[in-house]
Amino acid sequence: MNPGTNASIDPFMTDIAPHLAALLHSAAGKRVAAAAALGKSKNPAAVAPLIRSLSDPQGKVRMECALALGRLGDEEAVPALVSALSDPDPGVQTAAIAATGRIRDRRATGALISCLRDTDNRVRIGAAEVLGKLGDPCAVKPLEDLGADRFEDVRNAAAKALDRIRKRHSR
Questions:
Q1: Structure confidence at residue 171 as a pLDDT band (50, 70, 90)
Q2: Computed from CA positions of residues 33, 134, 88, 78, in that sequence, does the dihedral angle turn out positive or negative?
Q3: Which of 35, 93, 161, 162 would you label with 16, given CA atoms 20 to 30 Å apart?
Q4: Average of per-residue pLDDT values in the chain
């Protein structure tokens, strides 16, 4: 292999190179598509650029980046996803919740518990569901408090999460 030829380029990186470049495109739609493609790539080299793009000015881009990080499943993304749990856009929050649920890292527990007090019921439902998956007993009291939530779907999600946690810890 000649070092000056394309044969010396890492094929693992060439698969995602166009998508990495598209994350910087001026059109938000291109950035959303790039994030989605990177999430499907299973390439760990996509994690850092997706983390950086969690600060994109467009909520749809941040949302897709969070979902992509969840698909990649790399624990390196957890601190950035925890930060995204407090994004002002509920769509980004729910995407970050889903991503932390896929990665299943208990470092997100405290931030997910905070999401149980969010004004958006989709955020509260998602946080309750993921807390149930994580099974951390420190989520029991905050989940019990959701039993008084005005939305039935929130109450049901909290009850299911409590059931999962209690079953896990009764073994």
A1: low
A2: negative
A3: 93
A4: 93
